Amino acid sequence: MAPGTDDLVAIGADLEPGTLLAAYRAGYFPMPLGDVDEPDGDIGWWSPQRRGVLELDGLKVSRSLRKTARRFEIRIDTAFAAVVDGCADPARDGAWISEQIRAAYLELHRLGWAHSVEAWAGDELAGGLYGVAVGGVFAGESMFHRHRDASKAALIGLVEHLSAQGGERLIDVQWQTEHLATLGVVEIDRARYLRRLAALLETPPAFW
């Protein structure tokens, strides 16, 4: 599903860590408006009317995907910047990660709030994902792959990691797409998401 007009709730502000964390705790996330190459372009703040979420017990993994995923070694937070750069590759359709977005999330990672889950094939970063963890919610920002199913393997790794920590947890993927729906992502309305978020903010963090 593509962003809708009603999903954009604010324009402006900065990308300082405090601003970003306050936004995630309120159910918002940033994306640049206009050309990602603009160094100081406007930032839009989004809160989808129909939110794409993945319940940990709702992940759908086919037998063939499970077999393929075993080929990769899953690591956490060993190559955060490289994962962001893979997601930001301008050759990808719909590239949206600007330099100011990149810098902001590198700082969030340095402070312990943003995390990457990586799928490695030997010494090669084959794919991965990154996002922000606030309480029991992992707000996924983007994912990429260089090997077939590597990003899906990273998602499986994320679910396994979160499940192992105990407590109620939820993965927020922003918008449901046909691809994500095949993996178990469903839509819930904004009000329901905000209620879930408020309750999950008290869950102990899953990353250190």
Automatic annotation (TrEMBL):
Gene3D superfamilies: Leucyl/phenylalanyl-tRNA-protein transferase, C-terminal domain, Leucyl/phenylalanyl-tRNA-protein transferase, N-terminal domain. Its EC number is 2.3.2.6. It holds the Pfam family Leu_Phe_trans. It is an enzyme of class 2 (transferase). Keywords: Acyltransferase, Cytoplasm, Transferase. It catalyses: N-terminal L-lysyl-[protein] + L-leucyl-tRNA(Leu) = N-terminal L-leucyl-L-lysyl-[protein] + tRNA(Leu) + H(+); L-phenylalanyl-tRNA(Phe) + an N-terminal L-alpha-aminoacyl-[protein] = an N-terminal L-phenylalanyl-L-alpha-aminoacyl-[protein] + tRNA(Phe); N-terminal L-arginyl-[protein] + L-leucyl-tRNA(Leu) = N-terminal L-leucyl-L-arginyl-[protein] + tRNA(Leu) + H(+). It is found in: Cytoplasm. SUPFAM superfamilies: Acyl-CoA N-acyltransferases (Nat). GO terms for molecular function: transferase activity. Transmembrane segments: none annotated. The keyword Acyltransferase applies. Functions in the N-end rule pathway of protein degradation where it conjugates Leu, Phe and, less efficiently, Met from aminoacyl-tRNAs to the N-termini of proteins containing an N-terminal arginine or lysine. Belongs to the L/F-transferase family. This is Leucyl/phenylalanyl-tRNA--protein transferase.
